[in-house]
From TrEMBL:
Keyword Lyase: yes
Protein name, entry field: Carbonic anhydrase
Signal peptide coordinates: none
Cofactor(s) it depends on: Zn(2+)
UniProt organism field: Mastigocoleus testarum BC008
Domain (Alpha-carbonic anhydrase): residue spans on this chain: 39-262
Biological function: Reversible hydration of carbon dioxide.
Length: 262
């Protein structure tokens, strides 16, 4: 009995020493054992948009929120809206396939001024087909330029992509589209300027909404340009091979205002 007790005590001691030597204590070990990976989500099946809110309590807004995005743009209220103040600078091309889209992380002091607030451009990414609809019609793709202010609020510029001529501003990105999910890649000697992706016609729609992906947080000032930019059939096809569907269905507008610049 004494020998068995001694072995048990030594075993417990060994665990304690190992934990301490690694900079852990037993409380840390308990917490670590309870930590779970973030729930995986997608666009089809049990992980699809209709089930996002059930995948995690953090995603509850996806099902319960009342100011969700995207929306069907229909019958906006025409208003005399201030023109957007945009100052984009060039940035090294930093690209990642995050498993949900192709994202370009922006590294420069590029800003959008909106309602007296300054928002910094942090990244842009793509959806196929478009997430927002206009009069219940999709576009082949949609580009989202994501800006954030010091308070953590977001302003997102949505730009529709229609089939037409090849988009030269996208060529440097499309040449290095990562085919598999992985870490960010920094492309040597390549810079991009997001201003080249903006439509020449600056009219837009505005409404307040949410992220279009989990956790669907309702903290986004949406600005969706009325006029699309062009992209070739080949460019759409190259993206769609990677992401056949990465667009959330439209959500109810509810009692929100949808404004259109004139």
């Amino acid at each position: 009995m004494q020998r068995r007790k001694l072995l048990r005590d030594l075993s417990i001691g060994a665990v304690g020493v190992t934990a301490i030597s690694l900079g852990w204590n037993f409380r840390d070990l308990v917490v670590a054992s309870k930590q779970k990976e973030k729930p995986h989500w997608g666009y089809i099946g049990e992980e699809g948009p209709e089930n996002w809110g059930k995948l995690s309590p953090e995603f509850s807004s996806c099902n319960l929120g009342t100011a969700q995005s995207p929306i069907n743009i229909n019958s906006p209220i025409e208003a005399n809206l201030d023109q957007l103040e945009i100052d984009y600078q060039s940035s090294p091309l930093r690209i990642i396939n995050n498993g949900h889209t192709i994202q370009v992380n922006y590294q420069s002091e590029s800003i959008l001024k909106l309602d007296g607030e300054t928002y910094k451009l942090v990244q842009f990414h793509f959806h196929h087909p478009s997430e927002h609809k206009v009069n219940s019609q999709n576009f082949p793709m949609e580009l989202h330029l994501v800006h954030q202010n010091e308070k953590g609020s977001l302003a997102v510029l949505g730009i529709f992509l229609k089939q037409g001529k090849a988009n030269k501003a996208l060529e440097s990105i499309w040449e290095v589209l990562p085919e598999k999910q992985g870490k960010e890649q920094i492309i040597p000697n390549v810079e991009i300027n997001a201003s080249e992706l903006l439509p020449t016609d600056k009219e837009f729609y505005r409404y307040y909404g949410s992220l279009t992906t989990p956790p669907c947080s309702e903290k986004v000032n949406w600005i969706v340009y009325k006029k699309p930019i062009e992209v070739s059939v080949a460019q759409v096809q190259k993206f769609s091979k990677l992401f056949p569907l990465n667009a959330r269905p439209v959500q109810n507008l509810n009692r929100r205002f949808l404004l259109g610049s004139n």
